[in-house]
Structures are given as C-alpha cells and as structure tokens.
Amino acid sequence: MLRKAFLATTALTAVIGHQANAQDVDLSYGFFGMPGLIDMPIAQSADEGEIAGSLIAKDGMFRLNFGAQLTDRLSGSASYTLTDIYDATGTGIETSELERSFSLQYRLVNESTYVPAIAIGMRDFLNPGRFQSEYVVATKSIGDSLTVTAGLGWGAMGTHDGFDNPIGSRGDRPEFDENTPEGQLATDQWFSGDAALFGGASYQINDKWGMMAEYSSIAYPQQAFAPVFDVESPYNFGVTYRPLDGVQVSLVSLYGADVALSGTFVLNANNRPGMGGIESAPAPVKVRSENMRAARTWDREAVSEAGLRSAMQALLEIEGLELTGLEVTDRTARVRYVNGQYRSQAQAMGRVARMMTQVMPGSVETFILEPEVNGIPLSSTSLARSDLERLENRAGASDAILARAQFSDASGDAGLMPVASDASAFSWGISPYFAVTSLGSEGDRSADIGLKLNARYQITPQILLSGAIVQSLLKDDSEDPVTDTTPDLHNVRTDGGFYGDDGVPVMESLMLTHYGRPAENLYSRVSGGYLERMYGGVSAELLWKPVESDFGFGAEVNYVSQRDTDMGFGFDEYDYDIVTGHVSAYYDIGDGYHAQLDLGRYLAGDWGGKVTLAREYANGVTVSAYVSQTDVSYEDYGDGSYNKGVRISIPQDFLTGRPSRKDYGATLRTRSGDGGAMLNVDGRLYEVVRDAHTNDLSDSWGRFWR
C-alpha cells in the first residue's frame, strides 16, 4: 500500500509543481459520464453548456451516461448500468439488473500556471448504491498534450488498498447490500469509512488519437460486483480516437482482465451543431418617406381594412405564421397571430413586424403584436415603427429595440376583427417512440419501442380534440408479479408495463381540451377524456402569470379513473378512482434558470411535494432535475422513499438549423414506485404561456432581426 501511495503522491507533486498553461489539451470523457480518465475522475471541467451522451459496453455490462456542464464549475451526470447477475446456484447468469446513479462534481480551484485544478465530487450519491463514492481530485496540464491527475476517494473509490479516513473517523461504511432499495438518501455514509489514493495521466498524440492510463482505487469486491468485474490489477489503459468533432471512441483494458468499448457524443448547448440560418431571409423593413411618416391618417377608400387583412394574412403565411385577428386605426395596428414555425417567439415577432412595415399605411406608427396559442392571447408587445426603420441595420440593434419595446398583458377582443384561417383544422403525424415503464412494485422494468400516431382537430380556436395511437414493435414483456410488496398502496404506476402489452394498436390518449382567458393575467385549461395511457377523467387548471413577472402561480385538480390494461375504453379492471391535484409556484431565477414547486395530492392518495430546477440555454436546450417526496412511509413507497430524475430537451431547430417548434426529450429517472406519482396530462399552461412573456422574450431577443 505504501508503494501505491508513493506513486500517487509523486503524481500529485508533479501536478502541483510543474509549470504549464492551464488545460491546453482536449478533455476525454470517462465511464461515469463526466470528463475523466477511465474509471477515475479528473478535476478539469468541460465548457459551460456542454452535454455528453455515452455508451460503454463490456462483457456482462452496458452503461448509458448522460452528462452536462451545468455551470462553469458544476457538472453532473446520470447513468443507467445494466449488469448480469447470478442465479440461485451462483454458477450461472440468470438475468440482468438495471441500476440508476446520479453524480455531481464541483471545481473548487481553477487551474493556473502553478496550481492544479481541484474538484470535489460524489458518485451515486442519491442512494446507498453499488458505485456510491466521494472524492477530491487534482489535475494539472503539462505542456500542450499531457495531463496528470491524483486524488483521494471514499466509498467504492476507497476499496483498493484503503487506509484510515484522513478527515477523522465517521464510523465504518457498511458494505453494499443489493436488497437495499433505491431511493434512500444515505448522507450518513458520505466521506465515511476507509479512503484510498488514485491517479493517472492522459496524453493527446494528435487531434484524433490519445492515450490514457490510471491507477484505480476501486477494488470491485465480489460480493457487490460478481460476476461482472474480475480485478487482477488496479491499472487500466486506454486509447481514444476522435473521428469527428464532438465524437470520441475509446478502447480500454480494464483491471488486467477485461476489455471495454465506449462511444461518446458531445455537443454544446451554446453552439448550434447544425447549420444556422437555413431558414429563408426575412423581408427587409420598408422605410416610409417623410410625407408618409408625417401623415396623421390614411385614405380608407384607397386602402380598405379588408384589403389590409388579406395582404397581411398572405405575407404571414409566407413566414409560416397564421393571422387570427387585426385592428388598424389611424396611428396603431394590432396583429394577433399563431406562431407555428419559430421556436423563438422573438424571432416570430421580428418577422411579423417586418411584414407590417410592408403593408400598413404610412400614418400607422405603433405596432402591437399579440402571439396566440390555442385561442388564447399570451402577451402584447408594442413597437415604434420609426425604431424599426432606424435600427434595422445598426450595430446593437437587438438590444436597442428591446429597450424601446413595451410589454403588457394582451388586450381584449374589442375592436379586433377575426380572420378566418386558411389552414386545415386537422393535422397528424407519425413518429417512433421508446419508453421504459414499471412492471410491478418490486422495481422491474419493461422497455418498449414502437410507432406513435398523433392527431389533432381544432374545433374552434380554443377547443382542441387530440389523441394518439401507439403500436408496439418490440417489447420485453414480463409475467405479472406474484406478490405486491406495497399492498397498502394502490399500484398507480408500478403496473404501467402491463398496459398495451397485447401487441396490437392501442389508444394512448383521446381528449377534448378548452383553453381560456378568464381575466387579466389569468389562463385556464379544462381537459376531459382518456388523458394518458393509464388514466382517464377530467383535469382543470388555472394559472396566474403576469407578462412581466418572474413569478407564476397555478392550481390543478383532477378526477381520474384507472384504465384497463388493454388501453381500450374501459375502466373496470382496477375499479380505482381518485381526486388528485396540486398548487404550483414558478420562478424565473434569471440567466436561463427556472424553479418550480408543486404541492398536493398524488395518484395514490399520498400528500407531498416536488421541486424542479431547470437550466434553459439560449438555443433552447433544456436540462432539468427534480425530486419529490410524500407522506408515504419508506416501506410502502415502492422501492425507495422519494422520486428523482433528470430530463433533457433538445429543440429540433438546434440540430437541423431549420425553423421548428418541435423538440426531442428524454427523462432519466430512478425506479419510481407508487408514491409521488403525478398525472401525465398534455398542455399544462405554464410551458404554453411563458415563452411569449417578457423574460423568455428577452432571453431569445437576439433572434428578433433573424
């Protein structure tokens, strides 16, 4: 052990003492979803906003990682690990076990000429899990190609040649117990038990090829990791290859006994990977003559209001926008429209304003723009036409026009002439889907891949009929559980994998929704029908959200019954109904951060709360994490005492460069029991409303002139 400690200490001395520029080499991603060597972490961080997805494969194990550089110093990752497990005889592999883990790392010290980067981190910290570890690590660049790393680990990272805890006795650390359910926050174990040293180095040969070696402090004890890991040596070696920017492939030798292959795809939420500006160029601002600008009225015999409506409707259709209402006076023009084209409402506003300069009489000086969704106006933005004419081609034009814009709640319908839509009321689409759902209360899962047919019919601007039919193509079915480990709690979610398992097309949802504006700053939604794959009933929501406020408050109440597992029209199989709902508080923290608190009654009748924190980047990429806990006891909750998860959402236009309001999302969560389960109903109001309010408009206002 002294020889290993000497090696790690020597590496640490080199890290601290050698003069070099800070972080001159490309970062590689390790096996836990964050910048690292192989199994061991490094202290250096990726660029803020960098997001990485990786897949690691070795005999008996597959791991899917999702990592993100959340701030300049804070990084996090979520990992799904599928490992083989022995049968009862201990001689053969019976099945595979899926484990979820979440990790965080915070850079305490920035790297400089003489000082290494120093970071503190935790792996699998939300559970007393197989990989749970804490560590302190230092990393230093040496020249343009070499970095060296040394650190101290606890938990799983303190199992090889461990020694007494250098920060004082916090008691012995219990061995991993596979019967301990996920969901128990084991804070009493953090930085407890033995500690061990680790270290390593990486060398970038050229832009494409690199090498790395590490001394691991993970022993992979057989009682926790057999038969997947066989450790003959603490040394790991690897080669990395970068065929393209943002793509890393690694081949590694693990512990002298195994070989693993990994692939990592990296993108930065602040940099568009697809080509920007593929959308058509906007029409230029039409500048009025001095005589037109001085006019106080316009000739209605020469230019009729009906003619203005037709011209404005035709021009907005070119932009993929739909005119729904128009009011024109001598000095003001108010346009209400639906943006079905651009993710950024600010970009849509810029397009509308340009088109208005092409059509509106010269005496009209004030433009009022009112974006609308599902028949409800979301906000009112007033712009001076002369500002548009003066600022279009000037440096800093976006900030200048934002400073002059006036935001308020949308005006009423008085004076607004409705415009009949030329668009079809019916729309549909087919897309693939992938879902992982619960199978019984013991934490088993069912994976499902198939096709989804979505359709919607806009009966009136405020009344929408929508539905979805799904056809499973590949599903790993499982037998019904013999026993229910949470008999005091109804299986509101843990039977989800048995829904639609007959291999025929099934109705995922079919509902009628009405959206409204009952008063100033108030929005409403009432939905009825088959609201989601497991429940049908009625859902009602009310949201208070002033246009210029950082805060929003909402309330939702639902009366639902559990559907039959064939996902037809029946509700007889479970004979279960419940009133559920919650009150919600929303807060725009600033700099793209959003917080949400939900308090109320869940589907199983339990009471509790859910906290969600999200980071939304300027390009629309959103990373969020949530945790929820209720009054259900640990024993009855269903595989853990609380729920938590991470979600990423990527707009389609971020990937393709073409304008679109569609996005792609995925949620990585721990095993979710029946406690803390919420209704999954589409069209909740806050996400519908906020992107046309001041804060979101300001965040994406740089697109106004695009």
UniProtKB/TrEMBL annotation:
It comes from the Bacteria. Residues 1-22 form the signal peptide. Pfam families: YjbH. The keyword Cell wall biogenesis/degradation does not apply. SUPFAM superfamilies: OMPA-like (SSF56925). Residues 163-182 are annotated as: Disordered. Keywords: Signal. This is Exopolysaccharide biosynthesis protein YbjH. It comes from Yoonia maritima.
